[in-house]
Design goal:
The chain has helices spanning about 5-20, 55-60, 90-100, 130-140; strands spanning about 35-40, 45-50, 65-70, 75-80, 110, 115. α3 (about 90-100) packs across α4. With about 140 residues, the protein is α+β, with helices and mostly antiparallel strands. β5 and β6 (about 115) form a beta hairpin. Strands 1-2-3-4-6-5 form a six-stranded mixed β-sheet.
């Protein structure tokens, strides 16, 4: 990592904050486009079409989710979560079921109480259809 890059980021953010405080700040609209591609009782599988697609999903009332993104290597990246611990969607149970189905001894699905996902570097070989079936089975 290059320390100069980090200094540049902090400097840019500081400058934007100064402009905002001085009343010269700008607003940029978020791209909150997404598509619901699957799901089940109480949860939705979405594809983020915009950079902030999950925010659009949350604004539309989706509180438990699986976000699916196809990687350039043909595998998938998944994020599994719920917007709060009060949403009845057992993230650890879902992640455990997906990890068992993946069967990869080297890289594992992981999570906390409210969010988790597929292995970062290895990705997932599970298709969105397979993931939906596994998630619905884990929630029974």
């Amino acid at each position: 990592r290059n320390a100069g890059d980090f200094v540049g980021i902090v400097t840019d953010v500081e400058q934007r904050m100064r402009e905002y405080v001085a009343g010269r700040g700008k607003r940029i609209a978020l791209d909150v486009r997404y598509a619901r591609i699957d799901g089940g009782a109480g949860w939705s599988m979405i594809r983020e079409d915009g950079e902030n697609g999950r925010m659009g999903a949350f604004a539309d009332g989706i509180a438990a989710y699986v976000i699916c993104r196809e990687r350039s290597d043909g595998k998938f990246a998944y994020t599994v979560g719920r917007i709060s611990q009060f949403i009845p969607f057992d993230v650890p149970a879902v992640i455990a079921a997906l990890d068992a189905a993946e069967g990869n001894g080297l890289a594992h699905w992981g999570c906390g109480n409210t969010i988790g996902g597929s292995p970062r570097s290895a990705g997932s070989r599970l298709s969105p259809d397979e993931v939906a079936v596994i998630v619905n089975g884990a929630l029974l």
